[in-house]
Specification:
98 residues, mainly beta, three-stranded antiparallel β-sheet, 10% helix
Length: 98
């Protein structure tokens, strides 16, 4: 009797610029410039990833669905949703009080 197919996907590194994932035997980068949904996500949210099929990744805590092909070739997928990332500080320094 055949078993259930298991598709492997593992987050191997999270940096200030991108996420690295191992998908089967291929390591892929998800830069925040191309995949902005992950920039403000917690480590736990990023690590909670499922691969329901060979070309489908799903982060349920973030409600993000991506095709593996869109990670390999983001230039082929120009339409992107905007991130809701809000910095916790202003880029301008506080005013000087005399």
């Amino acid at each position: 009797m055949p078993g259930t197919a298991i598709f492997g996907a593992e987050v191997t590194n999270i940096s200030g610029h991108c996420i690295w994932m191992l998908i089967d035997d291929e390591e892929l980068s998800l830069p925040y410039t191309e995949f902005p949904w992950f920039k403000a996500a917690t480590i736990q949210q990023i690590l909670n990833v499922f691969r329901p099929s060979a070309d489908h990744l799903y982060w349920p805590d973030l409600d993000v669905d991506l095709s593996v092909e869109s990670i390999r070739h983001p230039e082929r997928f120009p339409l992107k949703a905007n991130s809701t990332f809000q910095p916790c500080h202003s880029p301008d320094p506080p005013p000087v009080v005399h």
